[in-house]
Amino acid sequence: MKKIQYFLTVALLLTVFAAIMSCKPTPKVAGDFNDQLMREQKAVVLKYDELLETFDTYVAAKMDAALIALSSQIESSKDNVNSIITIDGGDALKDEVLN
């Protein structure tokens, strides 16, 4: 009787452990989520850097064009980040990228 009880306890613990582990995102899913967010953030930073470079020449037309490109990229990146499916625990990172 003790052997059956021991076996059932171990089986139950393994089942609970497997269920808990299956609820978390896999490292690949978490990495893909992070990569998508960082890709959008990098696109905005590149446009911002282009805007800063136009300050050196101080040509109004180039500055205006760079500002418009940055604004457009920000809106596009916001839409793309909002469309990314959030993984468990990823809300804070997603909100941080949006801010």
Would you give an account of this structure?
The protein is mostly helical and 99 residues long. It contains four helices and no strands. Helix 2 packs antiparallel against helix 3.
Short description:
This protein has about 100 residues and is mainly alpha-helical. The protein contains four helices and no strands.
Number of strands: 0
pLDDT < 50 runs, ≥5 residues: none
Give the % helix.
over 70%
Order of helices and strands: HHHH
For the sheet with most strands, the description reads:
none
Task: Name the shape in a single word.
Answer: rod-shaped
Question: Please, what is the average pLDDT?
Answer: 84
**How large is the radius of gyration?**
24 Å
The span between the termini is 60 Å
Strand content: under 5%
SS content category: mainly alpha
Q: List the total number of helices.
A: 4
Q: Which keywords apply here?
A:
99 residues, mainly alpha, 86% helix, rod-shaped
Helix-strand layout with pairing:
Elements lengths: L1 H22 L3 H31 L2 H24 L7 H8 L1
